[in-house]
Design brief:
This protein is mainly β and about 120 residues long. It contains no helices and eleven strands.
Amino acid sequence: QVQLVESGGGLVQAGGSLRLSCVASGRTFGTYVMGWFRQAPGKERTFVAAINLIGSTIYADFVKGRFTISRDNAKNTLYLQMNSLKPEDTAVYYCAARASRSTAVTISDYEHWGQGTQVTVSS
């Protein structure tokens, strides 16, 4: 079992940047594929980015070139660097863990979830 706690959300103007963090409990962080998802008001939770055990990454098309996912296994921490933020990036951002070697983009493929952190981008 792994517990995930996100932080780093907040209010930022369009064009600004934020870095989200997700700290995982336990000693097995390095064995999990990690992902970021987001959920805007009134919308379904959607995939943002994922990173596998050796650092290979995948991104949703709408964040390519703007967001960067990374992990520090020594610190049990997952990051999401978000640049050039847009009002449509406003959402609650969740980190998730998957006990597998392969990345995935579907919510049901991730077994563990954090509580989320709010990101609000003003125009």
